[in-house]
Amino acid sequence: MKKFLLSGLALFVALLTTELGVASAVWQRAHATFYGGSDASGTMGGACGYGNLFTDGYGTKTAALSTVLFNDGKSCGGCYRIVCDANQVPQWCLRGTSIVVTATNFCPPNYALPNDNGGWCNPPRPHFDMSQPAFQTIAKYKAGIVPILYRKVGCKRSGGIRFTVNGRDYFELVLISNVGGAGVISRVWIKGSKMSNWESMTRNWGANWQSSRYLNGQSMSFRVQLSNGRTRTANNVAPSNWRFGQSFISNVQF
Fold this sequence. Notes:
This protein has 254 residues and is mainly beta. The protein has helices at 2-20, 67-70, 132-138; strands at 28-35, 62-65, 79-84, 99-106, 127-131, 146-153, 162-168, 171-177, 185-192, 199-200, 202-205, 208-211, 220-226, 231-238, 246-249.
């Protein structure tokens, strides 16, 4: 029976690898729990800076990452395929299932509890605290925590990259969401319609990038580069009459 389970899991992983078109896919081991309630309402917002996860393009297929995976917010927007490890807990896994989740939050460590008994997100553990609906796609609710296999995958998004402009004069704080492809942003540039050159933005926190330019009354363009080096340019995505607090959906995507 154990040999059958191992063969079944190996076949399932092989099928997923083929589906993703990655011959040398590397699967890694971790554990997963869940939070946020049955409707995932408790997952809105979070350490990546996203607000309404439905509006920002992520829905309920999300997860908070432990310290080692979150990487000080540099992993925000990245996608992971997750499979419950039925070899270890066949009674809790939903066989033949997997889910792709987006990193939208941080699972903080709890040093008051041991790493293997409550301190699930303590370093150096790789851990996914998934939304409850996402968790219940691969495992039973009563399990609470399950061992998993995971790997990075590309993100598939609907519509264009979204730019939400917050901040104040001389401080544009731009939340960039609904990013496809590799999902993880490595660099961003901004250009006002009165500027002759592109200017680099800096990561403020999570998926929020900042500029110290005075760009009121100018249309704004953004250039986004992902962790795999691919770049897209959203020209004049914010019109010259933009206001702080507004969001703009571009016509470009990875």
